[in-house]
Automatic annotation (TrEMBL), chain A:
Pfam families: ATG5_HBR (PF20637), ATG5_UblA (PF20638), ATG5_UblB (PF04106). The lineage of its organism: Eukaryota, Metazoa, Spiralia, Lophotrochozoa, Mollusca. One of its GO terms (molecular function) is Atg8-family ligase activity. This is Autophagy protein 5. GO terms for biological process: apoptotic process; autophagosome assembly; autophagy of mitochondrion; cellular response to nitrogen starvation; immune system process; negative regulation of programmed cell death; piecemeal microautophagy of the nucleus. Keywords: Acetylation, Apoptosis, Autophagy, Cytoplasm, Immunity, Isopeptide bond, Membrane, Ubl conjugation. The keyword Acetylation applies. It comes from Lottia gigantea (Giant owl limpet).
From TrEMBL, chain B:
GO terms for cellular component: cytosol. This is Ubiquitin-like-conjugating enzyme ATG10. Keywords: Autophagy, Transferase, Ubl conjugation pathway. The keyword Transferase applies. Belongs to the ATG10 family. One of its GO terms (molecular function) is Atg12 conjugating enzyme activity. It comes from the Eukaryota. GO terms for biological process: autophagosome assembly; autophagy of mitochondrion; protein modification by small protein conjugation. The lineage of its organism: Eukaryota, Metazoa, Spiralia, Lophotrochozoa, Mollusca. Pfam families: Autophagy_act_C (PF03987).
Amino acid sequence: MAEDREVLREIWEGRIPVCFSLAEEEIYTGEPPDLYYLLVPRQIYFPLVTDKVQRHFIASVDPDKHGEMWLEYEGQPLKWHYPVGVLFDLFANSNSLPWNITVHFQAFPEEELLHCPAKEAIESHFMSVVKEADGLKHRGQLVNNMQKKDHKQLWTGLQNDKFEQFWSVNKKLMESSGDDSFKYIPYRIYQNDRPYIQKLFKPVSDDGEVQTLRDLLKTFDNDELCFNPDISSEKILLIQGIQPPLETPILWLSEHFSYPDNFLHICIVDKMKNES
Amino acid sequence: DMLTYEYHIVYSSSYSVPVLYFNVYKADGKLLSLENIWKIVPDVYQQELQADKWSILTQQEHPLLGRPFYQLHPCHTEMMMKNIRTMLDKRCDYLISWISSVGPVVGLNLSLQYA
């Protein structure tokens, strides 16, 4: 795995240029506020970097009528508990940068978005996904046997953008030696018109065949998954903003293309919007 | 001050245990906040809750519906159920034992008819 360490570093350093603007209907003071630009890491969660965005725009909103800040793109409320890169791959257009996101302080969509009442909410969510991933890979043995300070280090490494700090702990969770490979692969498949799908999937079949991304996709039927690459399709598959060859072993993808939460977040999106 | 509770039980294949999801609505239809959800956990569980509330009961995305629900974290369920079932008659229905253990934490109390 050490040979492909550069891949880990490149994935970690992925950034998306975002342009934040305040929802027009919420502008209370005379002048519309300046746009706010930020280069956001793909691997993190929005609330970790949007304090400044909040401070910038809140002055322009009716002080009697504002609640928790939330983000929206082309009418789609953005789920803060998904990594930024997943949201971008799923909803935005990689040919149209910066990513123009609208900031809201009113009419929080409770039926769609989780609240983010404190930084602890982000950490708690992140750790719960890491634990679920380990539950799938190692029956939870590795995470549960780690010290609390290791859990903390994963979080602070992510929060402070410290690759080495994060991976010195995460490499233990990515351990898969020989027969002790991951039991199941942690992944979720997103299609933007429905909740994500997730089923148990082994990296090596019971007959000993190394499973590829294509093998994973084949386990879903046409109702569940609108993606058949063998038929000329209007859809493409993105992981970390990249279309990996379908022959890639799923274990390798899990080890190298997972987000810091240890899940492979796979997005099936329209081809049209990603082509100029 | 009427509250409406909605409970879902979803089997998690990641943890191989059932997981309890729930929402609590005020009379005006608004969702109860996390702070208030924690406040209405019965007194007998408050000490344990306060020690680690962010790891025990938080808002999550329902895995099938994709909407926000409060969730009791499943991490401890397997261990808890192992302990409970060594004490009880193993023929006792798993789901009944599980609900009667975790349910009361979030106001879900089973009628004795299930015993």
